[in-house]
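Thread: Newbie trying to understand structure tokens

Hi all, I'm a second-year student working on a class project, and my supervisor (Dr. K.) asked me to get a predicted structure for one chain before our next meeting. I've only ever worked with sequences, so writing a 3D structure as a token string is new to me. If someone could post the tokens and maybe explain what I'm looking at, I'd be very grateful. Here's the chain:
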Amino acid sequence: MKPVIRKSANQTTGSFTVKRLHDPHFDPNWHFHPEYQLFLVLEGTGTRFIGDSIKHFEAGDLVFTGPNLPHLWRSDTVYFKGNPECQVQGIVVYFNANFLGPDFFNKPEMFGLKHLLQQSERGLEILGYTRDILTHQIKALEQLNGFDRILVLLEILHTLARSTEYNLLSSIGFTNTFKPSDTPRMQQVHDYVLTNFKNSISLETVAEVANMSPSAFCRYFKARANKTFYDFVSEIRIGHACKLLIEEKWAVTQICYECGYKTLSNFNSQFKVITGLSPLQFQKQYLRRNLPENKKAG
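---
Reply by user tm_fold:
Sure, no problem. This is what the structure looks like when written as tokens:
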């Protein structure tokens, strides 16, 4: 079956949709849809693609995306091996721009929310205390019906609109140039890289996977991903390195080779280019931010 790049939420009742996901892995297909989306990861790890942003995700990850912004939460390889103990869970909220009427967000009182919706066109990674509050509210949505449900969603959006605790994900220059006909080819490239990033990846081999010449593939990929293919591979590798650093199981040298780098100097250089930190600085910063005394209860 061919993956579908454009899809829509199955909205059956109510003005917006709330779904609990509990599966062996998250949807592995690169896709976009016309709804706004809030997605909270409750369980699972992997690599998150939002437009031209590539980052590691884990439980607690919370992202708000606007309409037609391509995205993918690609679960780690272990979730595709049929182990019943490896499961993912999440809550996803879909709503369209007119879910409360065609002019609701154009009212003067909605200026802050309208600005938030515009920001979501690049994708928002929600952080800090705001994430704690919204996590609690999103979980509450599952248990609510009717007007109470709408009120809580508006409260979620209002909280986020007043917060500065988020990162914009896609670059300013990113635009969705994908067409349904692109889907199988880009999916094959994603799958190949995510399966083989720990090894050497030649341009000739991946171009063959895409059934293109190397020069044509380079132009094609950059036009759709807003980055070179080699930048894409580097971000996949560094995203995996971030996961391993967070887990604190391996030394930096071991992580370097596990992520497909041949030399520690190249690994350190690429890590700093992508994250702005050295591997050890990243690890210390993450651990410091996640100490119990530095986290407020939501």
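A couple of things are worth pointing out once you decode it. The CA atoms of residues 11 and 17 lie 6 Å apart. The first helix runs from residue 111 to 119. Feel free to ask follow-ups in this thread.
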